């Protein structure tokens, strides 16, 4: 007689257990996503951690975590892999940390990172979805590239002459830790003895002017009628970072200006930045123009602190507003990514002429 009731008991258990599990864990399981770094270079790895917290007294036999990455990230260093998943179990009143190793793939803010979790009683009859709060703020810097245009400015700020007979227009800017390849004569021995590590001198030259570096995201006239293609904007960002690093190595300071939307900023950005500051800003830049380029150039002209040597990177050809900058004593080098080889040579010659002023 007992054998007749056994199938019925099994069916009732299969019917009651998923519903009892759902009532026990409902509202008592939560998750969130964090990142080990805020910014990465293309190809660098970063750890994305999904934390699943079980606040109930019921064990979770099966929890499936699924992660979908934006185009800026990849699960593989050499190819774009954007989907990843993992299955695990969580004990009662415990939490589980699941780490995913991802790599920077292309420039830009890595949003949105879509994470989802599904828990079940082990049979998979009634899955329960858990919301994953995204606490990760991650962006990918522009890729390191060579200068498209060679500016014959000859930055001589990293050489110095100690002899008073042959004075040199250089001055000590700062000291920094020794790096492989630095000349031995540039070691600052007093600072090295005081700090306990080799320090080298960094110089800037009064012959190396400060520059205003302008990056434009405007693709159409008027500026709000169309957005710039992401690939074209990434190429502009890579060249802007290469120029900023080249000027910084020569000792010049960079006043960076852009009309691209950067993070939460909905207006144009004008700031004195280091090369790494430019890289950090461009990691959050989007190919959307917040104002007209001519309006940005007019604002720079009115600024008393803006340098008189400008490098403008724009997807459009040189505007009439930039051609009139010489009336205000401003030397403009206009770089259009769609220019031809003849225009490239003209730009290099123009930069050479401006450097001699």
UniProtKB/TrEMBL annotation:
List, alphabetically, the InterPro entries matched. Answer: DUF58 (IPR002881)
Q: Tell me which residues make up the DUF58 domain.
A: 174-259
Q: Can you say what this protein is called?
A: DUF58 domain-containing protein
What is the source species? Alicyclobacillus mali (ex Roth et al. 2021)
Lineage, top ranks: Bacteria, Bacillati, Bacillota, Bacilli, Bacillales
């Amino acid at each position: 007689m007992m054998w007749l009731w056994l199938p019925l008991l099994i069916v009732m258990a299969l019917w009651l257990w998923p519903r009892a599990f759902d009532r026990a864990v409902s509202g008592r399981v939560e998750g969130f996503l964090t990142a080990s770094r805020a910014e990465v270079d293309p190809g660098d790895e970063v750890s994305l951690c999904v934390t699943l917290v079980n606040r109930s007294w019921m064990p979770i036999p099966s929890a499936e975590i699924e992660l979908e990455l934006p185009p800026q990230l990849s699960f593989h260093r050499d190819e774009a892999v954007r989907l990843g998943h993992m299955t695990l179990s969580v004990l009662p009143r415990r939490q589980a940390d699941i780490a995913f190793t991802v790599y920077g793939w292309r420039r830009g803010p890595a949003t949105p990172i879509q994470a989802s979790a599904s828990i079940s009683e082990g049979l998979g009859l009634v899955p329960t979805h858990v919301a994953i709060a995204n606490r990760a703020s991650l962006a990918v810097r522009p890729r390191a590239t060579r200068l498209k245009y060679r500016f014959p400015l000859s930055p001589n700020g990293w050489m110095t002459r100690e002899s008073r007979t042959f004075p040199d227009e250089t001055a000590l800017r700062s000291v920094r830790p020794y790096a492989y390849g630095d000349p031995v004569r540039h070691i600052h021995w007093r600072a090295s003895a005081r700090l306990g590590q080799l320090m080298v001198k960094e110089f800037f030259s009064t012959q190396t002017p400060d520059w205003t570096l302008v990056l434009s995201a405007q693709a159409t006239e008027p500026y709000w009628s169309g957005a710039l293609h992401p690939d074209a904007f990434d190429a502009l960002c890579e060249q802007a970072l290469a120029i900023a690093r080249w000027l910084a190595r020569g000792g010049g300071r960079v006043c960076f200006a852009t009309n691209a939307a950067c993070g939460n900023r909905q207006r144009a950005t004008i700031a004195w930045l280091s090369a790494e500051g430019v890289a950090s800003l461009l990691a959050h830049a989007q190919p959307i123009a917040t104002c007209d380029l001519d309006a940005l150039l007019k604002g720079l002209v009115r600024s008393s602190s803006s340098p008189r040597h400008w490098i403008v990177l724009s997807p459009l050809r040189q505007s009439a507003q930039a051609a009139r900058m010489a009336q205000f004593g401003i030397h403009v080098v206009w770089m259009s990514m769609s220019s031809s080889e003849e225009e490239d040579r003209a730009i290099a010659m123009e930069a050479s002429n401006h450097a001699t002023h």
